Task: inverse folding
């Protein structure tokens, strides 16, 4: 959370995250660039430019594969949520690694010709009507352009400027970029492989991303947030004993949005489930220090008025609540963001022995 | 609904104790994945064909008869220790360029050529020095050179550029190299055909269009792929030249 824009709000966890990421990437590149040539011991070595291009290209693919696995893993097992926390730094670093790959390729395969190397990238192969020999470079250009756009707009300034829904849609292009990279590799280097170790690792990575997303979608569909019954504009959330102190229950509204009903010290309040930062699921968060805390990046809100504590200015809509017998009901129309709503006290549940 | 038993991570707070072991294990797996991937992908790359620049020989100067096929070749009449008389060399310029402009008036004439050897087995190419010493006029009458017609052949293999095939780039063939090969051919680097079966002892040959024309543009769509084609084959010294019939080119199973 921040009241002003600074390049990076560093904290210990971000330092650790970036350090681990760097160690992984540097280890990959060091081994590929400096260890494997001696292991290969070819009589006539692969050109250093081609070797470098392959190292950075394979590293970028692996990085993107890991990045795209984090989302579904965090949905399936909440213990993976810390990997989501600083994923944007991972994405920006992937862009630089991919850019290095492109630079080696362009300055080798497309250089030394009579024409400009960037123009050559567009006209050297125009066999768009055939699969074998298709100009696979175009998929790489698209993927790199997308990565550059996403890296350039990864800062919270752009998130706020574009609004979270638009920003999230824009950044969903990462999936299209990944598909383009799969096509880029499949129609390019994979066509020439005699040794199929890379082919196997590549296919395993792509299938892992696809499989994890499918499994996470099924997981959420099976145990996802349910729609309540609506009567006269009020939606049934559940029973008064269902929500533990400090936690929430999420319900899907008729318009598809979600509402999170929190129990804070025996009083119920309802706010939008979408965090104002990145639309993170507030209902999957916790109340810490009397504030709802988003599980993605730790943005906090007062549960009674949906406002972040001063000096922060983020706000989310609130909802009116009522009890109808033992049922908790929430009004389907949200209040404007930041509107105070008096919490609804839960009735004191008496021990069974007393009732008997 | 979230579960109170699951440790709750907040980025700007210290990690909850129960989560630390899980995260340490994840970090270990992450680094192990990158280390092993770098090793396995890097150490299992295919070996390029045994070919390449021989800068270790230094610049070589030989004299011979230029023949335009239309791509220029040099039939050596006065060699040196490395390149013997009677050898035939394909000629290319620096970068992705041929030397057509420098020898266009020299068909059938003697020239002294200086350049760096590109070697693939026993067959050589010269990358001609870009300076004036690269191509020098030589006085004297060029001796007649024999061309041996070998008839019409039907072949299968790959079209690529001669310079990369000779090892200017390793690897210098295949679909991943296709755009580079196309740029070389656009720059008039001699095109070659790598045959799936050796013909007259050679597994590759210089290719041209029919009747001594340059490689037809239609052939560019087949670069780097396994194709079958027909053409008239001839031998000039130790270089074979295939004058392809563009109508017969078609993709075939590798």
Result:
């Amino acid at each position: 959370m921040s009241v002003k824009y600074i390049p990076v709000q560093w904290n210990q966890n971000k330092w650790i995250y970036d350090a681990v990421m760097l160690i992984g990437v540097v280890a990959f590149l060091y081994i590929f660039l400096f260890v494997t040539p001696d292991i290969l011991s070819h009589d006539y070595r692969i050109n250093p430019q081609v070797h470098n291009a392959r190292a950075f290209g394979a590293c970028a693919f692996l990085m993107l594969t890991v990045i795209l696995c984090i989302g579904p893993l965090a949905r399936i097992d909440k213990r993976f949520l810390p990997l989501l926390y600083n994923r944007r730094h991972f994405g920006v670093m992937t862009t630089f690694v991919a850019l290095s790959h492109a630079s080696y390729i362009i300055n080798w395969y497309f250089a030394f010709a009579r024409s400009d190397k960037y123009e050559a990238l567009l006209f050297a192969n125009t066999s768009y009507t055939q699969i074998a020999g298709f100009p696979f470079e175009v998929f790489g250009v698209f993927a790199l352009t997308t990565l550059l756009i996403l890296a350039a707009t990864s800062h919270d300034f752009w998130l706020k400027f574009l609004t979270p829904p638009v920003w999230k849609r824009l950044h969903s292009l990462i999936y299209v970029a990944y598909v383009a990279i799969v096509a880029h590799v499949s129609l390019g280097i994979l066509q020439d492989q005699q040794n199929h170790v890379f082919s196997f690792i590549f296919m395993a990575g792509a299938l892992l991303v696809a499989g994890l997303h499918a499994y996470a979608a099924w997981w959420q569909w099976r145990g996802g947030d349910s729609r309540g019954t609506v009567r006269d504009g009020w939606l049934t959330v559940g029973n008064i004993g269902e929500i533990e102190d400090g936690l929430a229950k999420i319900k899907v509204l008729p318009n598809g949005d979600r509402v999170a009903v929190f129990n804070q010290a025996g009083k119920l309040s309802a706010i939008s489930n979408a965090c104002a930062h990145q639309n993170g699921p507030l209902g999957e968060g916790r109340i810490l220090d009397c504030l709802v805390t988003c599980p993605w990046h730790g943005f906090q809100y007062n549960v009674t008025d949906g406002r972040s504590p001063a000096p922060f200015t983020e706000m989310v809509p609130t909802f009116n609540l009522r009890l109808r017998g033992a049922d908790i009901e929430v009004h389907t129309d949200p209040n404007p963001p930041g509107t105070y709503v008096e919490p609804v006290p839960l009735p004191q549940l008496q021990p069974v022995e007393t009732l008997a | 609904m979230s579960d109170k038993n699951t440790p709750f991570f907040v980025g700007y707070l210290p990690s909850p104790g129960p989560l630390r072991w899980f995260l340490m294990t994840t970090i270990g797996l992450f680094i192990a994945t990158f280390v092993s991937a770098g090793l396995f992908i890097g150490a299992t790359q295919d070996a390029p064909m045994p070919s390449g620049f021989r800068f270790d020989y230094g610049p070589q100067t030989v004299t011979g008869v230029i023949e335009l096929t239309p791509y220029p070749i040099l039939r050596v009449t006065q060699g040196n220790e490395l390149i013997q008389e009677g050898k035939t060399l394909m000629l290319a310029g620096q970068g992705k360029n041929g030397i057509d402009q420098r020898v266009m008036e020299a068909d059938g004439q003697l020239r002294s050529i200086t350049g760096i050897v590109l070697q693939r087995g026993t067959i050589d190419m010269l990358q001609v020095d870009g300076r004036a010493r690269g191509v020098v006029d030589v006085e004297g009458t060029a001796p007649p050179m024999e061309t041996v017609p070998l008839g019409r052949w039907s072949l299968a293999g790959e079209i690529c550029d001669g310079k990369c095939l000779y090892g200017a780039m390793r690897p210098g063939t295949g679909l991943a190299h296709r755009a580079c090969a196309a740029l070389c051919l656009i720059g008039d680097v001699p095109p070659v055909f790598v045959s799936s079966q050796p013909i007259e002892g050679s597994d590759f040959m210089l290719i041209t269009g029919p009747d001594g024309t340059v490689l037809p543009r239609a052939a560019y769509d087949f670069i780097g792929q396994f194709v079958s084609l027909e053409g008239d084959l001839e031998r000039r010294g130790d270089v074979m030249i295939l004058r392809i019939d563009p109508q017969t080119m078609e993709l075939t199973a590798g």
In short: Chain A touches chain B through 88 residues (CB under 8 Å).
